[in-house]
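How a chain folds remains the central question behind the approach discussed here. In the encoding step, the backbone of a single protein was reduced to a row of integers, each denoting a local shape. We regard such an encoding as a compact summary of how the chain folds. The sequence in question and its structure tokens are set out directly beneath this paragraph:

___
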Amino acid sequence: QGMNASMVYRMLARMERFEWIQSSLEESEKTGPARKSYQLTNEGKEILKHWTEKLELQREKIDQMIQRAKK
């Protein structure tokens, strides 16, 4: 099913409240409304690093389970 746009924007708003990201408005090069742009803060980069490390450990465990199951 996946994520819908409203779910993504709710998650972005939550991440902004936690100060993991910050947003800014960028003027459109063409006629149209300004677009919101997001960037990771330093804290957001640390959070991302932490979760990436945790996911890598989980992936290693899953890979080991798959290899055992193939034997």
